[in-house]
């Protein structure tokens, strides 16, 4: 992905194509390894699990991503999320800031909890997860909005190729 650049733009912003590439805005492949460090349910219940033990990997080409995450859901059941999404850089507002949208299939809500997520009749449900976060060359962190029920704070280590 190439941001709007021109000699005039570079002189006004002080950001050249090379500086944008250094920020990770350029084309290329990046893998990101993630884990969750904090979860907060808006309406906590005794059966809620706030330690998701999330392990995830994302693959980026430009601002497009594909990923898979393995975690314990809110009811301590093994769950998986397979997804595709987009990352949108917000460096014009705050350096390193970005937002992401992930669209995918969520599996793992079973038994008496299967109706806790919509459209889960086949034990696989569609999900959309928006995030907002910060990234540096060596560390990323995101606040993941889990529907209207909870948020999770994740940290990630990017590896570029």
Task: Lay out the secondary structure.
Blueprint: H1 7-13, H2 17-22, E1 29-41, E2 55-61, E3 64-72, E4 78-89, E5 97-107, E6 124-135, E7 140-146, E8 150-160
Antiparallel strand pairs: 1-2, 1-8, 2-3, 3-4, 4-5, 5-6, 6-7, 7-8
Protein described:
It is a single chain. The longest helix has 7 residues, at 7-13. It contains two helices and eight strands; from the N terminus they run ααββββββββ. It has 161 residues and is mainly β. A hairpin with a 3-residue loop joins β7 and β8 (150-160). Residues 1-22 have low confidence and may be disordered. It has an eight-stranded antiparallel β-barrel with strand order 1-2-3-4-5-6-7-8. Helix content is 8%, strand content 51%. It is globular, with a radius of gyration of 18 Å.
Keywords for this entry:
eight-stranded antiparallel barrel, 51% strand, globular, disordered N terminus
Brief sketch in words of this structure:
The protein is mainly beta. It has 2 helices and 8 strands. A hairpin with a 2-residue loop joins β2 (55-61) and β3.
């Amino acid at each position: 992905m190439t941001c709007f650049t021109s000699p005039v733009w570079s002189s006004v912003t002080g950001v050249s194509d090379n500086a944008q590439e250094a920020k990770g805005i350029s084309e290329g492949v990046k893998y990101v390894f993630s884990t969750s460090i904090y979860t907060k349910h808006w309406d906590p219940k005794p059966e809620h699990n706030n330690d998701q033990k999330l392990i995830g990997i994302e693959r980026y080409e430009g601002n497009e991503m594909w990923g898979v995450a393995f975690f314990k859901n809110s009811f301590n059941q093994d769950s998986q999320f397979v997804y595709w999404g987009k990352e949108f850089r917000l460096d014009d507002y705050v350096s390193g800031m970005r937002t992401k949208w992930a669209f995918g299939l969520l599996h793992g809500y079973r038994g008496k909890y299967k109706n806790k997520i919509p459209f889960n009749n086949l034990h696989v449900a569609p999900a959309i997860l928006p995030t907002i976060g910060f990234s540096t060359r060596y560390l990323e962190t995101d606040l993941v909005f889990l529907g209207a029920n909870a948020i999770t704070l994740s940290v990630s280590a990017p590896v570029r190729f």
